[in-house]
Amino acid sequence: MNRKVFIGFSLLLVAGSSSAMSVDETVSSSLSYHPAMSAATNDQRVSELQIDEAKSGYRPTASIEISSGVQWANNTTIRGFQDGGNDTHVNKADFRLRQMLFDGGSTRSRLDAANSGYEAAGYLVNERQQDIITSAVQSHLNVLRSEELLALATDNLEAHRKYLEDIESRASQGVITETDAHHARARYAFADASLMQQEEGHLVAISRYLEIVGIKPEGLDPVSRPTVAYNSLEEALDSTLNHPTVMQSGAVVQQARANYEQSKTAFAPTVDFEIRSTIQDSSATSDLSIYNPQSYDTFAGVVASYDLSNGGADVARKGVTAARQASAEELYKLAARDTREAIRTSWYSRDKTADRVPLLQSYTDSLELVLADYIDQFSVNRRDLLDLLDRQSETFRAKADLVDARYDLLIQDFELLQATGQLSGRFSN
């Protein structure tokens, strides 16, 4: 893109458009587009299905097994008719219906773990949502910031161009020295380089917006400061345990505890009510089929079972789940500590930036008045060139610092909402 066209287009964006996009629309588009949100939602759906899977332990199970093949047998019945064993082609059907009566609490623990997993997945969705909202808001604000800085750099270059034209005209007339003209050219080149830097920053901001939101930023609406519900840092810190990251870690702890309880049920007996029925037909190829072509076997009753040993797997699994529970509890403490740190950091940064903005505003206003006076005084040869160029550069830097501080404060407002777990509520429908 031609550089003048690029600058003109960027300045047009600053002025806005008839189809301006609000920050709420930016956030909505980002939540629909971002793969992290889709992944978290799908994980929550998986956790919901795992609850149904765990509930199946309370329901009866039924199975049927059909087999056909050769069976060799040697028993007293066969030896009553012939010497040695007998090969028989057997068709067999086994049916089993089972209802769990007691499993030591294994199903209850599995269901508790599944419910806690579902809660954790829900909190993770909220956590991801807040992360995406923060990134979307930052990208929205940074595009607006880059547009304002680009406009300032363009105005600064234009001012230096006018100075240079005036000074070169004076130098050609011998009113000022050629050294002054060299000064003006050097400052113009530096202003041009500053504009290039802002052009780069603007392109980077647009690229990041595109990646996060999924669309190009065109005519973004300005953003007002959000309301923060807390009047003090102590009030904000009280929200720590309600942050989705901390609550997600708490749900993981509950899930780990339920898994540990479930691992202990391996040392308890199980009691089931069973109905078993077997039908066997050996009439096809057996020499003895005329004596016992078919048999039926049905059982209905209570069956208790207890594993005496499975090679130490149950003991190992109990140790594993105990260690995972301990790890989850420590990660919960870490999540709470990190959240408190994020709240403090956001609070302090926001406070200091809020204090800086009016000072920078006053500083900028004063410099603009001074610059106007210097321009008037230079026109009547009461100020030298270097003083004028210094005031121009200082005013440009002050304006840029003020723009940065205003957008930093906005971003820090939203970061504080994220740190206290309130950000998603700000953009809820």
Protein model, in words:
It is a single chain. The protein has 429 residues and is α+β, with helices and mostly antiparallel strands. The chain has a single domain, classed as Up-down Bundle (Outer membrane efflux proteins (OEP)), CATH 1.20.1600.10. The chain has eleven helices and four strands, in the order αααβαβααααββααα. A four-stranded antiparallel beta sheet has the order 1-2-3-4, with no helix packed on it. Mean pLDDT is 88; it is low at 13-18.
Write down the domain tally: 1
Structural class: alpha+beta
The multimeric state of the shown protein is: single chain
Instruction: Calculate the mean pLDDT score and round it.
Output: 88
| Intertermini distance | 40 Å
Helix and strand arrangement:
Blueprint: H1 3-15, H2 23-33, H3 35-55, E1 61-73, H4 76-79, E2 86-102, H5 106-173, H6 178-213, H7 233-237, H8 244-264, E3 270-281, E4 294-305, H9 313-379, H10 385-419, H11 423-426
Antiparallel strand pairs: 1-2, 2-3, 3-4
Helix pairs in contact: 1-5, 2-5, 3-5, 5-6, 5-8, 5-10, 6-10, 8-9, 9-10
